[in-house]
Write a structure and sequence with these properties.
globular; 48% helix; 75 residues; single chain; mainly alpha
């Protein structure tokens, strides 16, 4: 899935009531958010909201991020 459209992601996140598994690259998502701050025509607020929510959930042990490199799986 691409990072657009934002509305589709908002629906996806709002429907995850019990558990959601996201496979992706957090560094990439964070870079997209940072890049969007210097580009006036890019709106990825939903992605920033997701990353902020993930950080909050991690802080209260409601979310777990598994680092692929630390898990011993390397390509």
């Amino acid at each position: 899935m691409s990072i657009k459209p934002a509305a589709a992601h908002n629906v996806l996140l709002s429907r995850a009531k019990w558990m959601m598994i996201v496979v992706g690259c957090l560094d990439f998502y964070q870079n997209v958010v940072e890049f969007s701050q210097v580009q006036s025509d890019v709106n990825v607020g939903f992605l920033k909201q997701f990353l902020d929510s993930l950080a909050l959930a991690q802080s209260v042990h409601d979310a777990v991020v598994i680092d692929l490199n630390k898990a011993g799986k390397k390509k």
